[in-house]
Amino acid sequence: MSDKQKIYFASDQHFGIPDFESSKLREKKFMSWLDEIKSDAKAIFLLGDLFDFWFEYKTVVPKGFVRVLGKIAELRDSGIPIYFFVGNHDLWMIDYFETELGIPVFHRPKEYEFEGKTFLIGHGDGLGPGDKGYKRMKKVFSHPLSKWFYRWLHPDIGVKLAQYLSTKNKLISGDEDIKFLGEDNEWLAQYAKRKLEQKHYDYFLFGHRHMPMEIKVGENSTYINTGDWISHFTYAVFDGKELALKTYQ
């Protein structure tokens, strides 16, 4: 690798909750981390749920987050590639990041190869066995007709409604779901094992579970979850040889 030798991965910041002041403190911590890694970052991957709610109207985006967006724009303008994978809280993202910040946005897991190592990267929601209720709900939320109808709501109503659902509706966000299920039962680990039946990957990188974890899913394959920036403040970093989980102090 060049002097910019590390690739960073982070997810599930959920900026906007539980309130303005608490979110602002976490935003500052996240921006401090971005400032620290910009000296050696070859690329940065944001694996979804950067915001607890994001919906793009044609001419309106949610109020707030100006410091975070400004810091991301600063890093991108400095030449650091940044990639964004939408999560279940920002799945209504369309092209704002692409047109305003020059950041590509992906709605499905994507394959990459770095220094001879193969990665499958995504947010993680709706993958693996089970969770059929959420998968059905996601199809409804992401359907073009649903988005068209929702866009007709005034933003003051649409954003307020979505924020309520985001924090209250278990189908979208449930704290009781944030429990370690065991290495054999973690559904993203099961998803990784099934993918290995079709093709080899050295690493599977996802967020969504809000728990930092590292699970061997094959003889030479590892599933890593990047945790969150609500209670863990964790991220993953690839130094050209190994992928490791870190905690930002």
According to CATH, what is the topology?
Purple Acid Phosphatase, chain A, domain 2
Helix content: 25-40%
Q: Give the biggest sheet.
A: 6 strands, mixed
Terminal Cα separation, in Å? 26 Å
Q: Could you list the spans in which at least 5 consecutive residues all have pLDDT below 50?
A: 170-174
Into how many domains do the coordinates divide? 1
- Can you list the strand order of the major beta sheet? 4-3-2-1-10-11
Strand content: 15-25%
> What is the CATH domain class?
Alpha Beta
- Rg of Cα set: 18 Å
Shape: globular
Q: Compute the average pLDDT.
A: 86
The CATH architecture category equals 4-Layer Sandwich
Number of strands: 11
- How many alpha or pi helices? 7
CATH superfamily: Metallo-dependent phosphatases
Outline the fold blueprint.
Elements: E1 6-10, H1 20-37, E2 41-46, H2 66-77, E3 82-85, H3 96-101, E4 105-106, E5 110-114, E6 117-121, H4 132-142, H5 144-151, H6 155-168, H7 187-196, E7 203-206, E8 212-218, E9 221-226, E10 234-238, E11 243-247
Parallel strand pairs: 1-2, 2-3, 3-4, 6-7, 7-9
Antiparallel strand pairs: 1-10, 5-6, 8-9, 10-11
Helix pairs in contact: 1-2
Describe the structure.
It is built from seven helices and eleven strands. The strands form two sheets. It has a six-stranded mixed sheet, with helices on one face. Strands 5-6-7-9-8 form a five-stranded mixed sheet, with helices on one face. 32% of the residues lie in helices and 22% in strands. The protein has a single domain (6-247), classed as Metallo-dependent phosphatases (Purple Acid Phosphatase, chain A, domain 2, 4-Layer Sandwich). The protein has helices spanning 20-37, 66-77, 96-101, 132-142, 144-151, 155-168, 187-196; strands at 6-10, 41-46, 82-85, 105-106, 110-114, 117-121, 203-206, 212-218, 221-226, 234-238, 243-247. With 249 residues, it is of the alpha/beta class. Strand 10 (234-238) and strand 11 (243-247) form a beta hairpin. The longest helix has 18 residues, at 20-37.
